[in-house]
Amino acid sequence: MDREWILNSAMNRFQLNFKRNVGPTSESIRQCAPKTLDEWKEYYLKNVRSKEHIESLGK
User: Fold this and answer.
1) Residue 53 backbone dihedrals phi, psi, to 5 degrees
2) What 8-state DSSP symbol labels residue 23?
3) Domain residue spans in the chain?
């Protein structure tokens, strides 16, 4: 099976990509307007969701 298909199936099955779990991602990207991935990570973890919350979704 294609790895991307498996990942997408798991994300949808457990609703890991839903707004209530990850926050308003598109809106947050527009507000931050990051120039680098590190800049986005820092903004996201400071203003949208905590690192602990995201890690708990993965578990």
Assistant:
1) -65, -45
2) -
3) 3-58
